[in-house]
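Human: I would love a firmer grasp of how sequence relates to backbone shape in proteins. Could you go through the record with me and say what the backbone is doing? Here is the record:
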Amino acid sequence: CRPSCFRMNPALPFSLAYIALFAAAPLLVPAHSMSVSYAFLIGAPFCAMVVALKRCVTTGFRPRQGWSIVAVAFLIWGLGMAASARQDLLLGNTEVAPADSMLFYVLYAVPLTWAMASSWRRERAVVSIIDGALASVLGVLFFVHSRATTNDPSLSPQEQGRWLVWMFDVMNAFLLAGAIGRWWGAETPPERRFFTVLMSFEGIYLVAAAFNNHWTALHLNLDVGSALDIVPSLPFLAFAVLAWPEAPSKPERAPLPRPRVWFVTGASPLLMSAALLTVSLVLVRSQYLVGMPGMLAAVVGFGLRTVLREVHHIAKQSKLRDDRSALRVLVSTDPLTSVANRRAFDDAFVREWRRGIRTGQALGLLMIDVDHFKKLNDRYGHAVGDACLKRVATAMQAQVQRSTDLVARYGGE
């Protein structure tokens, strides 16, 4: 990379230095390799969180911007790694997956699921809250299912570990699929920028987590403290590099097809509800009292958000119809006399002329001029002239008795 790249993106040399120190530290202090590795593993998500918060400074801390939600997810993951360090360093962990650390690793996916399920910048607050609640229920039920797997007496510790690893693979693949879908249907440049970074992070995280869980933990059976501990930190360092610089100036690409945007907007919450329903159905067989509320939450939550969106859509369409009607009146009405203007007259004349030709009926047209109007205007001013036109228009409008009659101001007086 050229020196200008380092000046443009300070996160890149920082990440490279972080990886180098991480690789060297366990070799320099082998007696404390586990403690040192945990320090670096905890630091990586917090570095990514700082970069996400930096993005919030320029884009805003509102959840709809996305960056603040990602910062919360990284905080939760870092707390999960801190819980693992506590188990290994202080409590002498003997479990396949301690409950506290596994809870954090599962809840880390809740904010990301919310960010990918709730329509970006479109939904009202109440719909976004429902999406957040469904994402939280999904995380809790996934944790319950994970704990049921690790506590299953019919499985050996090795089998429990394999099942748990595959479950986390499914969770990571679900997050990656959601990020790809939202990137595919991203409508605005900020949205496209956010989901490009998130999609890249989720892809790297999926590979890194699979390698660490399947190879390092299950196959090699290595504890924390080896050189391979660098792998779980790579996705967070990559996020810091990708999210740090501002988006480069590029020519604006053509707008996305509207059906694609609508499809992604509608399918994203449906994907989350389907995942919640699937996990609930799996739990119903073994834990009925947990699975059934999850199924109800999936059905009722998605139904409620659909009803709210439909009500909002109907209200919006009604307002648009009212606005169109008001605009139609403004376009066809003379602002001074409140009778039809010349445009409305021309439309009515053509319409009645064609009707007269078609039916053979006569058509009456009366052109009226106000006598001595120019003298009145010149002597007493335009205000008096306007008042005169209003009185004439009111008097003529009062004589209209049929629906086909039209009084219009053709021009001037």
Q: What stands out?
A: The CA atoms of residues 376 and 385 lie 6 Å apart. Confidence is low (pLDDT under 50) at residues 1-6.
